[in-house]
Amino acid sequence: MDNILRSKKVKILLAFTSLLLLVNSIQDSYAKYVSSASANGNFTIAEWTFKVNDQDILNESDFSSTIIPVIDANPNIKEGVIAPTSKGYFDVIVDHSRVGVSYKQDITLSYGEDSITDMVFTGYTLNGGEVTDIGETNTVSVVHNLSDESTIDVYRFYVEWIDGTGETMNNQEDTEASANGTTSVKIDLHFIQQAN
Question: Counting Cβ atoms within 10 Å, is residue 177 exposed (0-12), middle (13-18) or buried (19+)?
Answer without folding.
Answer: buried
